[in-house]
Amino acid sequence: MKQNVYDYSFEMRRTRKRNITFGLVLALSVILFLTLLLNLVLFPVLVRSSSMDPDIPKNGAVFITPLVRTPGRGDVVYLSSLDGEKIPAPKAFVNRIVEFFTLQQYYPFGHTNRISGKPMLRRVVGLPGDQIYMKDYVIYVKPRGQSQFLTEFELSDKDYDLKIYSVPAEWDGLVSSGNMDTITLGKDEYFVLADNRIEASDSRLWGPVQHSVIKGKALLQYFPFNKIRLF
Q1: Among 34, 41, 138, 208, which one is most buried in terms of CB atoms within 10 A?
Q2: What SS3 state is found at 153?
């Protein structure tokens, strides 16, 4: 009968046990680190539509930080699902780990709110207390306490481009409407728009969003590689 060296070597058994323990502790440490990272510091979002064209194209990917939930003017923010199905926390956790290692191409339990079939990245163009209106797809803003309206670009310290092109007159009044009467945002309200002002849904359809809906701020675009940049 063939003897196993571990049957008679106490030192080797102890070394093997130590190595197994180290491996388990390392695996658990990695899982804990990823859990904290993906929930508290940084998580990826894959944009599955052209709603944020041209700056963030379809299939572009950005990192969102939940550490910043009070946005500034011009910030790109992640909005929690307004109508999507919520996945239980254990399944959502497994999804986040798997999506991290598969570059967001596979989800064992379907899409979570964070990687949804309807990307919820939108740009903040109106802050609490603002008076705003839209003309020809451009937002005009009179901040609280100021006396005149300025364009969104004059007030924002963020540079961004919009996707705007001519549409038939009968389209006006639909989701893609380029004109909007003046409204005043409440104490806890933000007006968010897609950069693709023609084809995407946003606060023109939903109305202003509450601060509680904002779950993070875009920090870094890391794909496509020719558009890598900080926000």
Answers
A1: 208
A2: helix
CB atoms inside a 10 Å sphere around CB 203 = 23
Q: What is the pLDDT of residues 30-80, one digit of tens each?
A: 877 776 776 678 888 888 888 899 999 999 999 999 888 789 999 999 998
Packing angle, helices 10-36 and 89-101, rounded to 10 = 100
CA 130 to chain centre: 24
CA pair distance 187, 210, nearest whole angstrom:
9
DSSP secondary structure letters along 20-84: HHHHHHHHHHHHHHHHHIIIII-EEEE--SSTTTTTS-TT-EEEEETT--SPPTT-EEEE--SSP
H or E, element range at 193: strand 189-193
**CB neighbourhood size of 201 (10 A):** 15
3-class DSSP state for residue 212? helix
Q: Which amino acid is at 90?
A: P
Q: pTM value?
A: 0.71
